Amino acid sequence: MKTVLRIVAGLALLLLVVVVGGYLWASRATASTLARTIDTHAVDFPIPWPDVGPGGELGDSAAASVDPRQAALERGAHLVRARYPCADCHGENLGGGVMMDAMPVAQAFGPNLTLGEGGVTRDYGPSDWDRAVRHGVGTDGRPLAMPAVEFRSMSDQELADIVTYIRSLPPVDNTVMPFRTGPIGKMLVATGAFGFSADALPHFDDHAAMPPEAGPTVEFGAHLAATCAGCHHTHYAGGSFPGEPGWPPSSNLTPAGAIGGWSLEEFRRVMREGVRPDGTEVAVPMTYILGLGQAMSDMELEAIYLFLQSLPATETPD
């Protein structure tokens, strides 16, 4: 009996050593991952964006019938409320929100973007905005929890319009807790199972100055649908993705998925009401996107639909 107890005690001690050793290794690896610096290019663009002529050329602000800043504000408001899910992470007032609160995995809170106390963008210039939004890299060069892979295709004009709009918002005094990883999260980061956008993006390629011409076209739809890549991947065939425990795999958006048999009106209903043609409802986190769908125009939703229908039929990866 004593021999059995000694064996059990020895195995328990060995397990404890393995667990503690693994945790210490994961903690050091995670700290190293979060502390490293990533080089990016430095860009510059005007904020607010100048007025634009019908052919895309810069116009004459003095002769414009619409104040360029007011036009940028209106475009920026639409971008934030209809095309880019800023509020999902940064809160409705953009003064800070919850990205993930799932310990022992991780806690990630969208920082305060306003000009109030605790606002992280108060001293941002164009290049700082570019690094954070389109590269997932902070002003100190360290990787952010920002899902920049969804915003890589954002043009200079769109980013300038969004900045103009954010700077016009009422200041919110709120200091947001920094990104934290729990024991499981440390292991995921250490093993590479939880990645950062900064590691998946090019950092020295040029960005488009302006978005494609708006219209019910595949090209414009591809631009709008780029924000879907964070969950549905760049192949749009869906599958598993980093998220809170319990979130289901993302759906296949190519014609190989159920969407291949949807009509335009059925697609619009899914995007605005969250109800599929078979009567089932979409699940979290797709429910967070319904506000964007409701704010989009019929033309914008048609463009996305045309783009998704144009994709090659791709089976969801295992």
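The record above closes out task 2.4. Task 2.5 opens with a second protein, given below.
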Amino acid sequence: MASSSSVQQAREILGKRLREIRQDSGLTARQLASRAGWHESKCSRIENGRTAPSDDDLRMYTRHCGATGQTADLIATARNIDGAYVEWRRMERSGLRRAQESVLPLWERTLRFRAYSSWLIPGPFQTRGYITALLRSIRDRRAVPDDLEAAVQVRVDKQRLLHDGRRRFAVVLEESTLRHRIGGPETMAGQLGHLLSLASLPNVSLGVIPLSADRSALWPVEDFWIFDEGQVNVELVSAFLTITQPHEVGTYGRTFSALADLAVHGAPARALIASAIASYA
């Protein structure tokens, strides 16, 4: 399975933590490997993030280093890293509906949503026509089982959360997302009109970064969602990335704030959307 830089970084952080546990115990890497019955290079590979430790590896570390109180937390951390990077082909092997449904528990328990997009209108803000055109393209490109209508309905049903007053949505779009054509001109005009209406909801903040904005300090980045303060989801070309490391979540939070500062809101944002609608006439 392919790896991402974030996953690799998480493995290196875990390895550093294990190295500190070993050093605190007074053992050398060679001594720990000998006691655990490992090849002498195994400790180095794990501590440098080149090898993902198994549950048994972590039990060995903590037992021989006198740190069994940390075993459960280390195992949970390692399992989270292993599950962070999920290839689309695995998630969609039974069709697109399952991929849509997989995020529902997370959405149900989240109260504060922050989203940035440089490619597409974000899911909860999409019309049925836009969703259908988008998922049809994904179905055809990835050659997944055809459950298009069911997948579309799951995404449409999820949009009820927008109208739950307990939840807040802050969205920042690059102006280019208004111009990337998904479906025909009629679909796009309808989508952007829908976006205008949603921007008037009291629990929705919509910002658009103009093409004319000075990007010297911060250029467009990958699309991402931040769920409360605990998780970030990133859609990559080949995979779905889940980030829960607090320092990484914080980095995305700060990046979102910086992108929001570049955006225009209110009447100027609506003017950019209206201009894009006019281009589809």
